[in-house]
Structures are given as structure tokens and as C-alpha cells.
Amino acid sequence: MCEKPNKVWHCPWDFTMVDDIAPAFRTILEENYLTSSSRFEETQENRILWWKQRTNLDRRLDKFLRNVEDLWFGSWKCLLLGEWLNCKNFDSVLKNLVNDLRSKCKLDINEGLLKIILGGSKYVCEGKTLLSLLCSKKDCYIAKGGYCDEAKSGIFLNAANKLMSLEVASELINEALNALEVDDSVNREPVILVLDSEVQMLPWENLPILRNQEVYRMPSISSISAVLEKGNNHKEQVGRNLVPFPSIDPLDAFYLLNPAGDLKYTQTVFENYFRDQNLE
User: Fold this and answer.
1) In this structure, what are the phi and psi dihedrals at residue 247, rounded to the nearest 5 degrees?
2) Residue in 15, 16, 17, 53 with CA at minimum distance from that of residue 33
3) DSSP alpha helices (H): ranges in the chain?
4) By three-state DSSP, how is residue 146 classified?
5) Is residue 85 domain-resident?
6) Cα(48)–Cα(53) distance, rounded to whole angstroms?
7) CB 65, CB 208: distance < 8 Å
8) 56 with 109, same domain?
């Protein structure tokens, strides 16, 4: 049987908007602490029970993060991604799409935002979804010339009151998506998150869309600028005489396994492996 922990879990923050709109996160953290700090007799039954609790917590956290991504961001989650680094034909596809939307659909396109959304096309899925981002009636929209309105049966109405077919724009976007030469090996620029204190406790880096993305946190925009400026100054001073990053020889290393003596099963599993590596 598990024993109750000696210490009571203390939430690292007092109260934020997260506790109002997503109270499940605080509950998950508290239960994580309780299962991690509880002591139990080393029996097969207790180990099975403990792993069952931990697996359940993992599933709940995964569901929570997927809900945050889907309900808070929706199709706009693609804005969290960095730009592609090695997509061969991205620039040409983007340029052609912008020209076609402007000439054939008479839309005044925000090219910068379209570039970001098209870069996340793998997660937007199809042209109709992307099109809904292009012409949102809310403040976030790319096309200044027209808006989507279900009451108009799939018709754009531009600033000059000229009717435009929704299908034309959708076809153009689908053609652009199909023309992109993208696979899972395409790398992206790193993403830097500057988070408000109300939401910084959430594990944003573990959102499904960011799990394969290089992500960093910084406290403010000014701190990012300061680091970039310092890095540029350092490069100017060093010039081409850059000091190589020291390499690490895995055969010339040490290991520390189960120092607290509370992970006996883990020690049993890995001890022989480390010993076979001739590490000391």
C-alpha cells in the first residue's frame, strides 16, 4: 500500500487565469507530486498500481495539451511553427500564390502572414481550412479585399462590391499545397516564446505541434535583442578565428546510477548495460 507523502504540495503560483479556464493543469501537477513522493512497499502489485497511476497522468496531460492546442489556437496553431529552412520550392510557390490571389481573386494579400500559414500547411490540412484563415471576419485576416460569409453561399464580396468565386481561391490554395515539396525531414527555424506571467507555467514546448520543433523561452523581446546584439558583437571581435566546440568522447565518461537508492528496478535494468560499456 502507498503511504501519504510527508510534505504537502505547494503550487508555485498563487492564482492566474489558467486556474479559471484550465483548472485541470493544477490538479495534474498536484497528483504528479503525490504519486512521485509517496512511499510504498516494494511489491509487484504496488509497482503495477504506481505505473498505472503514472500512465493515467501522462494520458491526462496529453489530452490537456491537445485541448489547449485545438480549442485555444485551432487552425492558427501553425503560427507557432518556425519557418522552413530547406523547402526547395517554397518561395516560388508562395510568390505564384500571392500573384494569383491578387490577380484572379482581387485580394490584397498580407504576404508575410500568408507565408507563415502556408509554412504550416501540413497542420492546416487543406485549402478550405487555409481559406478560412485568409478571410476571417475577426481582426486576424490576410485578405483585406474580401470576407467569407456563409450566407453568401461561398462567394467573396470585395471592396468594390464585385463577386468572386470561393472555389477559385480554394483551388489556387490547394494547388499551392500540392506543389510544395515537403516531408518530415524539412527543418525549421527555432521558435522563441515570450510568455505572459499568467500562462508561463504551462508546458507550451510539449504542445503536439511543437514536439518536433526547436523551442526556447525568453523573458522579453528586449532580452532577445540584447542577446542577438551581444552575439553579433562577439562574432565581429572573433572574426574567423572561432574556437571549436569541445567534443565529448562517450568512452571517456562516468555514469551515476541510482544515487538515492530508490530506483532498484531501474538499476537492475541498466547496471549491466553500463558495465558492458566499460565505463567506470
Assistant:
1) -85, 155
2) 53
3) 17-21, 24-37, 44-67, 90-104, 111-119, 121-124, 127-134, 166-179, 221-238, 264-276
4) coil
5) no
6) 9
7) yes
8) no
For the chain, give the longest Cα–Cα distance. Answer: 78
Residue 164 belongs to domain spanning: 90-179
**All three cell numbers of 212:** 518536433
- Do both 23 and 104 map to the same domain? no
| Total domains, the chain | 4
The model's pTM:
0.67
- 174 and 104 within one domain: yes
pLDDT computed for residue 54 by the predictor: 93
Give the Cα separation of 197 and 17 in Å (integer).
10
Distance CA 3, CA 159 (A): 69
Give, to the nearest 10 degrees, the angle between helix 166-179 and helix 90-104: 170
pLDDT along the chain (280 residues), means of 10: 64 89 93 84 87 94 95 86 81 88 77 80 58 50 44 37 59 82 73 93 94 92 88 66 61 77 84 75
Residue 224 main-chain phi, psi, to 5 deg: -65, -45
How many CB atoms are located within 10 Å of the residue 148 CB?
20
Residue 123 lies in a domain: yes
Please report whether residue 184 resides in a domain: no
Query: Is residue 243 one of the residues assigned to a domain?
Result: no
| 99 and 167 inside one domain | yes
Q: What is the pLDDT of residue 157?
A: 42
Encoded amino acid at 205, one letter: E
Write down the pLDDT at residue 56.
96
Cα distance between residue 203 and residue 208, in whole Å? 11
What sign does the dihedral 39-44-277-275 (CA atoms) show?
positive
